[in-house]
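Re: [help] complex structure
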Amino acid sequence: MRNAFAAAITELAAADERIVLLSGDIGNRLFDTFREQFPTRFYNCGVAEANMTGMAAGLALSGLRPFTYTITPFATTRVIEQIRVDICYHDVPVVIVGTGSGLSYASLGPTHHSCEDVGILRCFPNLTVLCPADSAEVGPALEASLTLPGPAYIRLGKKGEPAVHASRPTFEVGKGIVMREGSDICLLGMGTMTSIALTAADELASRGLSARVVSMHTVKPLDEALLADAFSRFRAVAVVEEHSVIGGLGSAVAEWLARRDGRHPPLVVCGTPDAFISESGSQQWMRERCGLTGPAVAATILARLGTAT
Amino acid sequence: MMNASNLAVIAARVRARVVEMSHEAGTPHLGSSLSCIDLLVATYWGPLRIDPKHPLDPDRDRFILSKGHAATALYVTLAERGFFDPALLDTYDTDGGALPEHPGLQCVPGVEAATGSLGHGLPIALGMALAARIQRRPSRQFVLMSDGECEEGSVWEAAMFAPAQKLDSVIVMVDYNKWQATGRSDEIMALAPLAEKWRAFGWDACEVDGHDMAAVLAAISREPDGSGRPRVIVAHTVKGKGVSFMEDDNNWHYRIPTADEVRKARVELGQPEVRA
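Output below.
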């Protein structure tokens, strides 16, 4: 996804002179083409994310369209104060891009994991939160962020994520993309977990359950029409996210649900636990531990429906 | 540009109104506001290229009050300078009013950034400086910070970035009144030697008496020396400056003046007529 980001931002910058890229001393060589083509619009801001984030606000207050880019925890939770005050309070069109979200940097340890970012950031007024599902959604997400009057956060994986789209999808902020239709279960994938949701749907199909799968790329604002439809006609709605079960898409859906009257089918939230994963291990190992594989997600849903064997 | 003695008259008028607003609204930070008023007046009637009739001119210089707790000093300065009707000052800190205790986002024309949390103004100004460079605009960026504010790490992140990019359109003023909310700023943190710290970070640093209007004007009006170094003026000031019984008394970080104290202060400032 980071290569897709570098390609997309370079292409967009050619057409839009307002785009400025601020990097927090990562992406060695990743932005060589961007730097070559737009030498006055790329700044390596060093290991100083607070300053990078504040400068982005200053650039935006002057009419430019800055993007900040670094590893997710350093682009987000490290600089929560600057995001809140400089970007969200000023309501300026800065795009914060976090790379290696969730457990993408599993082996680097909890300092490099980000399973709380969405929970914290979606509290802030004015901020749009986007979690593209694969490389094909990255370019459209960037383009969409440029049409917004205010700030956005784009949560990326790292590299080599499975493609869920065969071609460039139609991407609209606040509108989930239906990947597959189904009639029994509705699976809402956040970001790169959409591919896991698709695998879970295959598992469910083998158990005789038909599942709809949605790339719920916009966590804020929520696609309320899609949710209303899902809770009106499926036996269960399940969120799959590489994020803590506290604060992520599952929480956002639960908050929405809590404001509604009447009975509704169960909401199943498959996310990371309220714990730091301090053992060493790969992303795959950590996903397995957290129950974030296709079979594990299917099993959680079946257990909730009381049909597990 | 006005001469120094004319500016001193304006500064006395701003001080008198600031003291009054603290009393009327019952709001603190009076000592902190009084210490930086000469710096504000010198900048707004001195080198700052702004036109109150065109407050959003993209070529304008930017002024950011990074020590947002001196909001009344900024509001009165902007009103005096013609950015808005001084009658609006009467609504300071009232329910539903436009003028909060820390400058809100574009709450009145002339306020370039919402401040209040310390250590934010300089990074924002550096972003504006980069923007001016990218857009080939002549704008300069003036930032007024407090000494206590220099304890924030973000200040030094920015201090390290600006010289690397040769952002010499940036002019920082540090209101070095030697006090922060609860004690001496040189004792709570190892702030001194402050000018040397900035110099070591690659800035063109000078020290002035922050109440010597001519000296302040000269320091902030000086053209960049061609080295690309951004400039910082460490202005030695007195907290509560201009009112004898407030000067260098840190109780006035939070104390609210009584009606009688306002009268005495106005007399000392040569502005005896108290508002109805």
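The first helix of chain B runs from residue 4 to 25.
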